[in-house]
User: Fold Gluconate transporter from Comamonas piscis.
Amino acid sequence: MSNYDIQLLLTALVSVLVLVALIVSRIRMHPLLALLIVCIGVGFATGMAPGDIAKNITNGAGKTLGAVGVVIALGAMLGKILADSGTTERLANAILRHTSDRMIPWAMTLVAFIIGIPMFFEVGLVVMLPLIFSVARKLESRENFKGSAYVYVGVPVIAALAAMHGMVPPHPGPLTAIATLKTTVGPTMLYGFLAALPAMVLGGPLYGAFITPRMTTRPEQALLDQFTEAKADNSKDQPGIAMGVLSALLPALLMLAHALAEMALPKGSALLQVATFLGNPLIAMLLGVLFAAFTLVYLRSGDAEKLRDTLGASLKPIAGIIMIIAGGGAFQQVLTSAKVGDAIVHMTHQFAFPPLVLGWLIAMLLSVSTGSATVGIVGAAGLLAPLAAADPSLNLPLLALSIGCGSLFFNYANHAGFWMVKESFGMTMGEATRTITVVQSIVSFVGLLMVLLFNTLPALGD
Assistant:
């Protein structure tokens, strides 16, 4: 490990500390400005040319906006239609009516578990926000409830979505590890489901119950009003709950169909190409918005002009969130281009760990340092691929799962998901750290423990 590697690692660490200081100190700088300033500082500190710094910031922000920003905007539109039609209100009432206060986090975990099977973390969260806010808003009005209802309801959702995203195919991370290590989807998926269950329970309902009384988090009123105020009247033209639920779940169903098609159909199949197109997160969310607008508004003689104005207004509360997420993407890109990941790899060569632990460790360090779970998974899987090919005794599905778990650890300020949770729930840096950062670390560590436990048992298929 060279002195330059040490310099890179120290630069990455200092950059995060400076970012936090700019946001939480007396300066109280807006997160987007703080992120951009830190990006420039990292670029100069690591010897980048000025032109390359600007290019990396632009590329990182643009890539994140393309992958996440448009989907979040469409999710806000879908959430507004569901709220105005009364669908979210009735779903929240149904959950509260049939579930005790103590069981609400468990019910939300189950919903997020189902939603999270095909959906990326950020996409699943934006789809779940209307329901989270609606349930929490009703819950906080109860006199005997103490703490933040939004943390109580939201933490289980974050844990379930994170566990599914990092552990279970067809999410990109696990699939990438599977392809690189040349293992199979079936056993990895089964191991992933089994590991995800205790991880999401410990990181979700149990940790949520512990932290809720200690927090007072509440989202901005404009965002709450957008996702929870039902403006539909009680006439017979009000859409049925089944149609509303179908509208809410359509994007998830399209993504799930794509996932199943990838596993069942041969490459090059025309049907697979159709499923790939329809299951793309952006296309699936767009179709969900159009389907909801048609079934919940147009078919019921709704005001088209009013719908257009409403959808336009739905983007205002989330515009700031999208831009801050873009800043997080720029920070991630600058760290990646500075070769911080290479320094992490060189550092891991200095230590001897069992392969399953080493896979988790490399993925964790790469993800934490670069802000990209994908970089963590690709780097760890690529490094361990020769070892996987040379050691027939190594359980490759478990190695793929271990790498996926490692990529979830310590989601912080250089991750887009961190900023999405922080801004959506109106959290401070400390509150966001105590929620998404700690939750994903619990999920990641429990996942590793499950991998080590499974490794003591006969391999699936033996």
Observations:
- The chain has one domain: 3-29+31-454.
- The chain is about 75% helix and 0% strand.
- The chain has a mean pLDDT of 91.
- Residues 3-29+31-454 form one domain.
